[in-house]
Amino acid sequence: LGPTITAGEILVEIMSTSIGAGFLEPQPLIGPFPSGAPAIFIDQVAKLGSPAGIISAVGDDDFGRLNIERLKRDGADVSAIEILSDMPTGSAFVRYREDGNRDFVFNIAKSASGMIRMTDGARELVERAGHVHVMGSAFAIPGIAEILMESVAAVKSRGGSVSFDPNIRKELLTGQADARKRLDQILGVTDLLLPSGEELAIAAGLDDEDAAVASLLASGISEIVLKRGAQGSSCLVSGKRFDCPAFIVEEVDPTGAGDCFGATYVTCRRQGRPHDEALRYANAAGARTVTRRGPMEGVSSFAELDEFIQANRSDI
Ligand code: ADP
Fold first, then answer.
1. Ligand 1 mean position, distance from CA 206 (Å)
2. Torsion angle of the four alpha carbons 73, 74, 79, 82, in this order, in degrees rounded to the nearest 10
3. Best of 199, 243, 283 to mutate for ligand 1, by most ligand atoms within 8 A of CB?
4. Which of 24, 54, 87, 226 has the most neighbouring CB atoms within 10 Å?
């Protein structure tokens, strides 16, 4: 199998250890933790022992080194991560509110992550790749759409496949003709779609779940996996549906669940595992992630997932 690849932001996350609103008073913080949805995804694929690489950029600083060391340690290909001498690595400060919502202070646009380019190293990775995972969150980065679409075209022309995690919010699409156009462009090349929450309805332009699924499957997407947080997940393919209940765990930090879930599902399917087995492993990976503080701290190997599945009951 050629590597699974993606392109997008690499960050550090620094989080408040107290619950409350914002950063307007001094407060205890914990971090830096390696982060960035595309980096979490690729780290999880690598941790499962499958080849994985990311097109990205970091600064020549400890935040960048922390990320590169973690990705390397877990087995990811870091050859397409450019190290920029004149830009810091991106960062996100996060604090949870009482109701579970989060406040962020981001530095992404004016960081190395805002400067990702198709370097020679990136091209070389794309030439070997067998699968491209597209993440909606990355589209905030200038030029990333072009890098992803170029990668998709190259991989598809060799018979490779594409997965897409929309990661979109309705508010962000309203009045943005470009965003809708781009969404339709990616949906047109997607084999496996991984929506959560209202993203299925947004993608299909239809509120009814059955109608949305039918319309997307008819448009050429071969597999839709719905992420339902603590309600588990479902897989829909033409004429068939698989449902998998969530594992019952205590949620400590939900960041990264969807990325680890998606990475595990994509990897299992690329390895030829059946839908229900892929769903179960993905549910376990998502659940295990939320039990650990830090976005990339809960990535799992197959041995860890097997152990987790043995030890934890799912809500059947
Ligand atoms: P996203 O982060 O993309 O919104 P979800 O929050 O739906 O995605 O999480 C992805 C998957 O992780 C879920 O489908 C589920 O399998 C697992 N998961 C997430 N939160 C929990 C939780 N609190 N308990 C158990 N499993 C969870």
1. 23
2. -80
3. 283
4. 54
pLDDT per position as a tens digit, 177-199: 788 888 999 999 999 999 998 99
Q: 114 vs 198, 255, 271, CA distance in Å? A: 28, 21, 33
- Report the SS3 class of residue 284: helix
Distances (CA, A) of 84 to 13, 56, 117, 130, 208: 19, 11, 11, 28, 46
Q: Tell me: ipTM over 0.85.
A: yes
- Strand order of the β-sheet with 102-107 is 29-35, 11-16, 90-96, 102-107
Over residues 211-225, mean pLDDT: 97
Pair of tokens at residue 188: 């047109």
User: Distance, CA 231 to ligand 1 centroid (Å)?
Assistant: 8
Assess whether the C-beta atom of 227 lies below 6 angstroms from ligand 1.
Answer: yes
The CB of 246 under 6 Å from ligand 1? The reply is yes
Q: What pTM value is reported for the model?
A: 0.96
Determine if residue 239 is left, alpha or beta; phi over 0 gives left, psi from -120 to 50 gives alpha, anything else beta.
left
**Which token pair is 85?**
């001498």
3 CA to centre of ligand 1 in angstroms: 25
Are the beta carbons of 113 and 56 closer than 8 angstroms?
yes
Give distance in angstroms: CA of 34 to centre of ligand 1.
Answer: 20
Which one-letter DSSP state was computed for residue 3? P
Which structure tokens are listed for 80? 């397409």
- Which atom of ligand 1 is nearest the CA belonging to 282? 16
Q: Does the N-terminal peptide bond of residue 295 adopt cis geometry, omega within 30 degrees of 0? A: no
Q: Pick from 25, 26, 44, 24: which is nearest to 34 by CA?
A: 44
- 290 ligand 1 Cβ < 6 A: yes
Whether residue 287 has its Cβ less than 6 Å from ligand 1:
yes
> pLDDT tens digits for 32-77?
999 999 999 999 999 999 999 999 999 999 999 999 999 999 999 9
